[in-house]
Amino acid sequence: MEITYHREGDYLIPDLTLPENPGYNIGKFGMLRQEYIMKHRRGLYINLLLSGELWKYLSELNEECHEVLDRIIPGMMEKEGVTEELKAADQMKWVQMRNNIQHRAEEFILRDYIYV
């Protein structure tokens, strides 16, 4: 790795730049994790940022969180009887139960994947 310098007065200052976001989609969970590690896991954040792996790490975490949600929400819906029959019979109750399941699943994700 070759480092270039520029002169400021009597000093040579290295021309250091951080890698740009190469187009990864970090999404909701990636942004939450980024904020958490920036405030509470400073060493991890700095290491990922300086190695250029931060955006990839956040993108992969976001994908993993969405995959877990896609697996556990249908199981919770089935277990609690949130079915298409309920949707046809009482749509508001179905929406209420579905939203409740969604929020509980997201709380699981936050506890086990984001704030660790």
Structure explained in plain terms:
- The chain is mainly alpha-helical and 116 residues long.
- The protein contains five helices and two strands.
- The chain has helices spanning 27-40, 42-51, 54-80, 84-89, 91-114; strands spanning 5-8, 11-14.
- Strands 1-2 form a two-stranded antiparallel sheet.
- A hairpin with a 2-residue loop joins β1 and β2.
- The radius of gyration is 22 Å and the shape is rod-shaped.
- It starts with a strand and ends with a helix.
Stretches with pLDDT under 50, minimum 5 residues: none
Shape: rod-shaped
Largest sheet: 2 strands, antiparallel
Strand content: 5-15%
So how many helices? 5
The helix content is: 55-70%
Which H/E pattern describes the elements?
EEHHHHH
Structural class: mainly alpha
The rounded distance between the terminal residues' Cα atoms is 34 Å
Strand order of the largest sheet: 1-2
Mean pLDDT: 93
How many distinct beta strands?
A: 2
- Rg, Å, rounded: 22 Å
SSE blueprint and pairings:
Blueprint: E1 5-8, E2 11-14, H1 27-40, H2 42-51, H3 54-80, H4 84-89, H5 91-114
Antiparallel strand pairs: 1-2
Helix pairs in contact: 1-2, 1-3, 3-5
Describe the structure concisely for a colleague:
This protein is mainly α and 116 residues long. It contains five helices and two strands; from the N terminus they run ββααααα. It has a two-stranded antiparallel ribbon with strand order 1-2.
